[in-house]
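A common beginner's mistake is to predict each chain separately and then try to dock the pieces by hand. The better habit, illustrated here, is to supply every component at once so that their relative placement is modeled jointly.
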Amino acid sequence: MVATAPSQRGSLLVNVAKDFSRYPAGRFLSDGEFSGEKFRHDFLEPAMRNNNHLHICLDGARGYGSSFLEEAFGGLVRLGYEPNDVLASIELESSDKSLILEIKDYIVHGRDE
Amino acid sequence: MQYKITRIMKRLSRKNKLYHIRVTLKRTKRKQRHKRRSEKLTRVNSQWDEIINAPSVLSITDKTKRTKFLRFINALQLTCNKHNKKILLDFSNTSTMIADAALLFRAHICRTVNIIQPSVTIKIRLSSESKVNEALKQIGVFSLLNQNPQITLTDPDVVHWRYAQGTGAEGEKYEEILGGYDGAITSALSSGLYLGLTEAMTNTRQHAYPNRENRSNLDSCGNNEWWMFSQEKDGYLYVVFCDLGIGIPSSLPLKNPNLWQRLTEKLGKKPSDSEAIKEAIMLSKSRTGKKHRGKGLKQLTSVLEKVEGGRLVLHSNHGCYTIKCGAQNAYDYTNKIPGTLISWSLPLQAKEAVY
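With all components supplied together, the output reads:
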């Protein structure tokens, strides 16, 4: 995990634009350097594995495509984590409230066929 | 008899005589000049094994102009199979380059240069229109062909052209063509464009160039490449993105056979290219049938929700899909462009849409 700083015990703060990239894009690692799979692998999975609470600040990035968001957050549920556990462990912050709703939707429906 | 002739022929005055001498001399000089010019042109042309004439207008929207442009592109593609040739792309009669066709030409030049034999040389004969030469310079065609004509960018339309190329989802390339518009466009519009462009890049990576190992040399050299371009003109921001892949109508049955079957059953025939594009854009389910995979192409239109008066045009193979103010239109051309070309036109000063 790069440049994450614990804001309190067991809690991690991630600013996507600063700690990951201002240009998140793509679904899989093969799509690009800052894909959803890469973000999940570097930030979300370790936090879930270690039962950490993760505060994610989404402001500052150029934008978020659905491929990126779905693979990062929906992909977490497909790895076996329960949607309720993911929702309880991740706190999202953004000036664009529709973005937060979209991510929550991906978490809830991550396993849907 | 002699008397009669003298009577018939008018005796010229000295002034008239001088006039006719001057005219004859001028005509002789003109003939010599034309002859010299023609010989020079023949001499210059003889330096080239092949001359490919560019059309007067580079466009893919008008049917006739599209046919001529694609004929030119096909001739360019054929150079990939040649050896020991000096080829001249003659732009002397080209007067107009429309942004979408200009980008497509740039993409083809880029691909051609990457795969032609080292023994093949391609150069450009300049247009008589300085704007065309400036545009060719601005989109990097001359540098690709190792040609360095002395052209200064002065035309305000051309000066604002920005150009980038890449492979896969390289979001940072957004800055190269649109970073300069921060402040001039709203953050919602900027974010919508970023979203549309990065999804187009991702689609190029995932769908446009499948099974490259089974394809011909020309088709397999795409290497997931895309090209994009921005232009500010008459208060509008134009953003164009293209790839040279198999196109959405060809990738749809491969990547989403269920949707393809449903569409075929619904229409009772094989969908036309424009029907396939429209369906792929309106698609709510993904290529795998999973809901979470379905939002890619739909996102191309999302930027239009951020601004009033925006327009999207998507060309892929024979098909064309347009959307403006919520009104969709889909139609087919007789000739096919290789790959997919997406263009957005967005008013720069328009009010932000409220939805």
